[in-house]
Amino acid sequence: QVQLVESGGGLVQAGGSLRLSCAAAGSILRINTMGWYRQATGKQREWVATITSDHSTNYADSVKGRFTISRDNAKNMVYLQMNNLKPEDTAVYYCNAALVRTSPLGAVGNYWGQGTQVTVSS
Fold first, then answer.
1. Environment class of 88 (CB within 10 Å of its CB; exposed 0-12, middle 13-18, buried 19+)
2. What was the pLDDT predicted at 61?
3. What digits encode the pLDDT tens for the residues 82-107?
4. How is 13-76 classified by DSSP, letter by letter?
């Protein structure tokens, strides 16, 4: 079994910062790409940023220059540093991991966390 648990969400004023964390645990052999997605009320879930196992990163245009994704491979964790937050960043943020499991050995899968709320007030 694999679990992803996010933390670090909250309420912040526009222009402020938050740092999200996501811990992956369970029968994990290797984590390939990790990423963050978000879903605002009444909207579809959208991609925010991804990072590969060799730390190559990509960002949505809407967050480029403000958000930074990073990971700690030894701890199976991914982070999202969010600076200069805007009201339009308000959403539930989800962690995602594409990984290979130890049980069943070699099984691949795509897993999601439960989400953490980020609210940016104007």
1. exposed
2. 98
3. 999 999 999 999 999 999 999 898 88
4. ETT--EEEEEEEEESEEEEEEEEEEEE-TTS--EEEEEE-TT--EEE-TTTTTTEEEEEETTTT
CA of residue 119 relative to chain centroid, distance: 16
Scanning the structure block, which residue is given the tokens 């989400």?
115
Contacts of 18 (CB under 8 A, 6+ apart): 8, 9, 10, 12, 82, 85, 118
- pLDDT at position 103 is 87
- At 26, which amino acid appears? G
pLDDT tens, 5-49? 999 999 999 999 999 999 999 999 999 999 999 999 999 999 999
